[in-house]
């Protein structure tokens, strides 16, 4: 299922999502690698099989093998980091922040693509996973690298739309299964 198939699979009540999906992917000002890396990382992080099956082939087509692997790596490492750092931040005992994390995150230091691209993908996944500490960290790295706020916002717009599409399609599939 390609992007157009994904849009047409959305129910009538989700017309805004259909329009937004076309807009954030089809009319994005992001360079191709940043756009499709963000799309792939968010499709993985959305945990929606239908979204991932629809968007992965197009992402693979638009990304170099290195960028494709790096986007998947961003989704993987942020799946871990977002839970860890969000939990540590939410605990009322600030001493957890002084403890060594002890988690491997080597890909962040050597992602195989431009650091800013990987940081943008990590920020988008962090938005989808709701980790404020990771969002702040990645946004600061991006801003120090000269990435403007519009680009940062574009990444979390993609995250928001991809997540909403996945949620809607998965809910519709569940509702249809209940009526069978």
Automatic annotation (TrEMBL):
Pfam family, one: CMD
Cross-referenced PANTHER family: ALKYL HYDROPEROXIDE REDUCTASE AHPD (PTHR33930)
Record-given protein name: Alkyl hydroperoxide reductase AhpD
NCBIfam families linked to this entry: ahpD, ahpD_dom
Key words of the record: Antioxidant, Disulfide bond, Oxidoreductase, Peroxidase, Redox-active center
SUPFAM superfamilies: AhpD-like (SSF69118)
Entry keyword Oxidoreductase: yes
GO molecular function, one term: disulfide oxidoreductase activity
Gene Ontology BP term (one): cell redox homeostasis
Assembly and oligomerization: Homotrimer.
SS bond list: 131-134
Reaction(s) the record says it catalyses: N(6)-[(R)-dihydrolipoyl]-L-lysyl-[lipoyl-carrier protein] + a hydroperoxide = N(6)-[(R)-lipoyl]-L-lysyl-[lipoyl-carrier protein] + an alcohol + H2O
InterPro entries hit by this protein: AhpD, AhpD-like, AhpD_core, CMD-like
Family of this protein: Belongs to the AhpD family.
Domain of life: Bacteria
Active site, UniProt feature: 131 (proton donor), 134 (cysteine sulfenic acid (-soh) intermediate)
Occurrences of domain Carboxymuconolactone decarboxylase-like (ranges): 94-173
EC number: 1.11.1.28
Gene: ahpD
Keyword Oxidoreductase: yes
Function: Antioxidant protein with alkyl hydroperoxidase activity. Required for the reduction of the AhpC active site cysteine residues and for the regeneration of the AhpC enzyme activity.
Enzyme kind, highest EC tier: oxidoreductase
């Amino acid at each position: 299922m390609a992007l157009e198939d994904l849009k047409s699979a959305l129910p009538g009540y989700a017309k805004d999502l259909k329009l937004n999906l076309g807009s954030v992917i089809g009319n994005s000002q992001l360079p191709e690698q940043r756009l499709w890396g963000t799309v792939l990382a968010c499709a993985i992080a959305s945990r929606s099989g239908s979204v991932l099956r629809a968007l992965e082939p197009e992402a693979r087509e638009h990304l170099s093998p290195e960028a494709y692997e790096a986007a998947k790596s961003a989704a993987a490492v942020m799946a871990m980091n977002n839970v860890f750092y969000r939990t540590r931040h939410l605990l009322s005992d600030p001493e957890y922040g002084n403890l060594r994390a002890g988690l491997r995150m080597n890909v962040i230091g050597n992602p195989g693509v431009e650091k800013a691209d990987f940081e943008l993908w990590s920020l988008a996944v962090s938005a989808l996973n709701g980790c404020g500490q990771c969002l702040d960290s990645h946004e600061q790295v991006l801003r120090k690298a000269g990435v403007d706020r519009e680009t940062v916002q574009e990444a979390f717009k993609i995250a928001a739309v991809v997540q909403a599409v996945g949620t809607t399609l998965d809910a519709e599939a569940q509702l249809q299964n209940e009526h069978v």
